[in-house]
Design goal:
Blueprint lengths: L18 H4 L18 E6 L31 H7 L5 E7 L8 H12 L8 E5 L7 H11 L3 E5 L23 H12 L3 E4 L6 H10 L5 E3 L10 H15 L4 E5 L11 H15 L4 E3 L12 H11 L5 H15 L4
Parallel strand pairs: 1-2, 2-3, 3-4, 4-5, 5-6, 6-7, 7-8
Length: 335
């Protein structure tokens, strides 16, 4: 059997209380608001693409995506990414699938070649694409793993909004209840692959059942749970869904998509999303991710770091290391 990664699934962390970091300890030198000393960063979510490799980009060149116009990021190479993170100690990058046309294993091969020819070895981890309802799902998973030792997980975009097509990647909301899709999901444990939960708040409760049925699969919620809509009702649904998912210790959360889910972001608006996630999941199950170049449409890497650091300013150096580096390394088996 072809598997990706070690047979040892990393131990699940203990629940965490934000009370332990609300008040900084004056005796602890690690309480800092900058990345002084080259604090390590593992970027748990980024993309590379060109219009030739990812032709769907043309459809959002001038708008039609929640983040805005893609005109300035139509081509995004590893060199572009390295330029954007210049000045920060980003040691590892996790590339998440970006809707490769045709055979999704083609993207894995493309990325593996990029990493192999870069002195940075980025991206060190690849999350591939696979429609888990495919009849040949296991063959696709095996080929992903055979193609690259960097293969660590799978994403299948299943976010669906009943009335707002701009927030939907698929035209129905049946995957989470489909026996065939759930069978495909269950195969991830066999191949030691994690799953990226790219879902909207209204889908979270149904996703909880899929998580419950697969305790041996590691899940990670993408982009804070896609809180595009900030009305009172949706935010209540979002919070209830996040709390339900967090009850399962095999679910982690990416603090990402901060500028793409809310193009008119402010420090306050970002904090209103990030603070509850840190409280609910705890620092042991949250990871930083840039979502570049999508978030680049509405802000720089420096701006991302500034707003996040203002939120975690009371964290100890150990807690910062977990959030910015070691949690992602563990989740994606980079150690």
């Amino acid at each position: 059997m072809i598997v990706c990664g070690s047979l040892d699934i990393f131990p699940l962390p203990r629940p965490y209380s934000r009370r332990s970091v609300d008040v900084p300890d004056p005796s602890e030198s690690g309480n800092e608001t900058t990345m002084d000393g080259g604090m390590e960063i593992v970027d748990a979510h980024m993309h590379l693409w060109t219009p030739a490799t990812h032709p769907w980009l043309e459809s959002v060149r001038n708008g039609g995506h929640p983040a805005g116009k893609f005109a300035a990021i139509m081509t995004y190479t590893l060199e572009d990414y390295l330029n954007d993170i210049k000045g920060f100690n980003v040691t590892h990058a996790v590339h998440v699938e970006a809707v490769w046309p045709g055979d999704p294993v083609g993207e894995t091969k493309w990325l593996d070649d990029i990493a192999a020819h870069s002195s940075t070895q980025m991206p060190q981890a690849i999350v591939g694409q696979c429609d888990l309802s495919r009849d040949d799902v296991e063959d696709v998973l095996k080929r992903h793993c055979s193609q690259s030792s960097r293969m660590k997980g799978i994403r299948h975009l299943i976010n669906h909004h009943p009335t707002m097509p701009i927030y939907s990647e698929v035209d129905h909301n049946h995957f989470l209840s489909s026996p065939q899709w759930l069978r495909g999901l269950s195969l991830l444990e066999k191949h030691h692959l994690s799953f990226e939960l790219h879902i909207l708040p209204g889908q979270m409760m149904e996703a909880v059942e899929a998580v419950r049925q697969n305790p041996g699969v590691q899940f990670i919620l993408n982009h804070c749970g896609l809180p595009y809509e900030r009305d009172e009702h949706t935010m209540r649904v979002w919070r209830e869904g996040v709390m339900a998912l967090a009850q399962h210790q095999n679910v982690f959360c990416k603090v990402s998509g901060l500028f793409s889910t809310n193009p008119q972001w402010t420090d306050k608006a970002v904090a209103e999303i990030v603070n509850p996630l840190l409280e609910i999941f705890g620092v042991d199950r949250c990871v930083f991710a840039s979502n570049f170049p999508v978030d680049k449409i509405n802000g720089t890497f420096q701006q991302q770091m500034d707003v996040i650091l203002s939120i975690v300013k009371t964290y100890s150096r150990e807690q910062l290391h977990k959030f910015f580096a070691s949690n992602a390394k563990s989740f994606y088996r980079l150690e």
